[in-house]
Amino acid sequence: MSPAPTLRKHSIATIGADGIGPEVIDAGVQVLRKLASLDGTFKLDFEEFDWSSETYKKTGQYIPDGGLEQLQKHDAILFGAVGAPDVPDHISLWNLRLAICQPFQQYANVRPTKIFRGTESPLRKANPGDLDWVIVRENTEGEYAGQGGRSHRGQPWEIATEVSIFTRHSVERLIRFAFETARKRPRKFLTVVTKSNAQRNGMVMWDEIAAEVSKDFDDVKWDKMLVDAMTCRMVLDPKSLDTIVATNLHADILSDLAAALAGSIGIAPTSNFDPTRKNPSMFEPIHGSAFDIAGKGVANPVATFWTASEMLIWLGEDEAAKKLMESVEAVTERGVRTRDLGGSAGTKEVTEAVCAELEVIYGRKKA
Ligand SMILES: NC(=O)c1ccc[n+]([C@@H]2O[C@H](COP(=O)([O-])OP(=O)(O)OC[C@H]3O[C@@H](n4cnc5c(N)ncnc54)[C@H](O)[C@@H]3O)[C@@H](O)[C@H]2O)c1
């Protein structure tokens, strides 16, 4: 008798955090549990961390002492969103999300975007397939390096500096990662976003490194765009783009534009990868805590489902990841959509519809 196959196990840390974060993470965990039980070849163990602006207001800390060591024990992190109306945004972002990405050297922030079947782009001429991009964002330095300061506070001669940091080490590893990402996609095409006309130091080095790294990727075609012109190209000629690499700030802005052009910020995912796998990578929707809709049960959970699927690929569960995305797209196509996508369904209905679709895909239920 052949031995029973061993169940692959993955441990996931969940941090819902603020606003709609816990709502979409609960939906994501529900769908992932369903998927694992239907699949039967892998098991997911979840550990919830209650790190949020509420915790900060009570204890003065978002991440308790020893918190990163706790996270380190997990294979991946599923993150909601941080930001509360009564805590300054730079405090919440720097003390939770960036306090994980930067020490864990999750240097490649990968943001795919596409138009789902059954949804509409605000662009008149873009249909599913016409906009299918992956934005690779530098995630540890650049404009968000945290360098700078303020002097003479409140005086008319007050000074504030925000210094962008570009190191050869980080730019090269990121651009190499972007070429590798482009190489894995059918079109093998990379657009390097820059601003080297106005920013004549860091951005000129960025361009030089892109040209150097490109020599190792003969099979990948590439071009270069100034970030301002890039916004026009994204709107006017979405089919001309495929994989895009940009700095921390540029890609942050371009990826929100990308999500909106694909239909809603509520569908777009982010992977924060430490490609060395020394630290757990972190997966999240790109949207924020959206306190305008928090607690109303209307948040779109699709971005979280997509990021959960990206997490499964990272963990080696490609087949299950594919099935999850097939279910999500079947559900949007059938018209079960939240308000941001022009529908009337709530978070719960979309989540239940995806779980039901998974049962169909795994052959447990008839369509
Ligand atoms: N990664 C993060 O944790 C992250 C990212 C962006 C913003 N933020 C924080 O979130 C807070 C709110 O920021 P914001 O308003 O600029 O951006 P946001 O993404 O939270 O919201 C922008 C708009 O999109 C809508 N929206 C966002 N996600 C949605 C979803 N899943 N379904 C339906 N509609 C959705 C919101 O209702 C809002 O109208 C701020 O504190 C900000 O700092 C955090």
Automatic annotation (TrEMBL):
Presence of keyword Manganese: yes
Residues of the Isopropylmalate dehydrogenase-like domain: 11-354
Reaction equations catalysed: (R)-malate + NAD(+) = pyruvate + CO2 + NADH
InterPro entries, per database record: ICDH/IPMDH, IsoCit/isopropylmalate_DH_CS, IsoPropMal-DH-like_dom, TTC_DH
Keywords for this protein: Magnesium, Manganese, Metal-binding, NAD, Oxidoreductase
PROSITE patterns: IDH_IMDH
Domain of life: Eukaryota
Residues annotated as signal peptide: none
Claim: NAD is one of the keywords in the record: yes
Cofactor(s) the protein needs: Mg(2+); Mn(2+)
EC identifiers of the protein: 1.1.1.83
Pfam families: Iso_dh
Gene Ontology MF term list: D-malate dehydrogenase (decarboxylating) (NAD+) activity; magnesium ion binding; NAD binding
Family per similarity comment: Belongs to the isocitrate and isopropylmalate dehydrogenases family.
Stated name of the protein: D-malate dehydrogenase (decarboxylating)
